[in-house]
What we know:
Blueprint: H1 5-29, H2 45-56, H3 65-82, H4 90-118, H5 121-141, H6 165-168, H7 170-192, H8 198-202, H9 210-239, E1 246-253, H10 267-278, E2 288-290, E3 296-301, H11 309-320, E4 325-335, E5 347-348, E6 355-365, E7 372-375, E8 426-430, H12 437-445, E9 450-455, H13 464-480, E10 484-488, E11 494-496, E12 502-503, E13 512-519, H14 526-530, H15 533-563
Parallel strand pairs: 1-2, 2-4, 3-4, 8-9, 9-10
Antiparallel strand pairs: 1-13, 4-6, 5-6, 6-7, 10-11, 11-12
Amino acid sequence: xxxxxxxxxxIKKLHLLLLAIASGILxxxxxxxxxxxxxxxxxxxxxxxxxxxLFTNREREIKFSALLYSWPGFIIWNLLTTxxxxxxxxxxxxxxxxxxxxxxxxxFQAFHWSRKKLQHPIAGYAALITYWTAFEYLHLNWDLxxxxxxxxxxxxxxxxxxxxxxxxxxxxxxxxxxxxxxLFFELLKKFTSKHSKVKxxxxxxxxxxxxxxxxxxxxxxxxxxxxxxxxLSLWRYTTYKEEKHPVNFVVVQPNLDPYTEQYSIAPSVVVxxxxxxxxxxxxSATNFLITPESAIQEQMWENDLSSFNSIRLLYSVINxxxxxxxxxxxxxxxxxxxxxxxxxxxxKFTDSQNHYNAYNAAIMLNARDSxxxxxxxxxxxxxxxxxxxxxxxxxxxxxxxxxxxxxxxGTDSVRxxxxxxxxxxxxxxxxxxxxxxxxxxxxxxxxxxxxxxITNDGWWGNTPGHRQHFSFAHLRAIxxxxxxxxxxxxxxxxxxxxxxxxxxxxxxxxxxxxKGTLNANQKITFYVxxxxxxxxxxxxxxxxxxxxxLIISLQHRFRKIKHE
Length: 564
């Protein structure tokens, strides 16, 4: 039967589009907090079939075809997993979904291009692994950081599978997933090959063909690659024992609506609400009282912080409990004295020539030390930071206003550790900072024996956003082997032990106070000591592969010009 060429091309394009959509659905179905991460090991397989089709039909391929065909799949993955951003900012959500999926498609296009130039299957797959890892590493370390969908995060709800993150961090998970997809793709490709005679040869008595042997070996290798790390992780989970070094916490979840209450209620009323919740749980044995991010909105100036009413009210609590350490989140400001160097984030007063900085701060109060401050340093793109690339400062006026301080905030260059009264050293990670494994581990490397996360997850409503955010804390506990006390304005507050198990979890949109004990730990894991070493290694390898691909491409172009 005759089929005209335009119709055949339409069928082919539809086939490629359906492959991309299948990958987007599989990756979305794997994502926490309610997905099953087993899908991650086959989520890229349809995309690899898509790329292989383009690779074997290069003479008909249009420019940037891998990007164009893969982009819908990555849009679906981003949309189905992070749509909830729209609850805080519609424009920001659209930009995040479109741009992040575009970045992913560019990486996939770069892999396809390198595979064509390198002309070797192992080198081609190495390009996919190294380019994707370099992309995830970039997403942790530039102003437009958005590592929410870094592949290793996909095991956050099934953290018992990845207890070995204490050695590799989430980039070990990224490697695990990508290699698994490559193995399953090769297995399915061989199994479905029209030219394979595996089945027929396998039916011959006592004779196994070389192709059938290769297929069986690849099948065994694929299954071992997936299941052996899980078995080792489950063994580590069941055998890991915490040493007893108890520290007592009271964690408050005030449940103030960030859109209608948090930035309008008088700070003294907020402190009163927090203490009304906390007092029934406080006693002389309590070491820490933890309140959430941005709990106090009194526009406090760090030049004379102790003079503000909110701080005085909290000190009155310490007078009743002299061994208590209070951690409170708030917005603070600092006026630069004349002659002090000004950072990029410095703002000019409208009525003078002086400058100041604005911060998202975590403030530690106790009876012994002066006020200790830590400024959030991994800032949320579009809300707390805008690109600092040359020529992009004009974007500051488009910063998203969520009720607090608008525009790029000041940061700290050091991951600070608080000194405390009669207990261990602790450090705070503020909201978004709990997504960054190496960054989080630097607090521990600097001496933190227990970690604290303070956050405000009310911006997103009762969506997967706050559940995903909470689940990522499981991974931070495993990477650092540190207990975590988590206080959310609303969302999920709770305690997470060194194995990643959560205790005393609160419910969304309910005022709550919880009391619990975490064990301190002084040991430093391999991952904390070395950070994202896998990402750095693969980024260098990816750069080398890209350079080799570029050299080969230029050589082919020069030869073509010469022959013409």
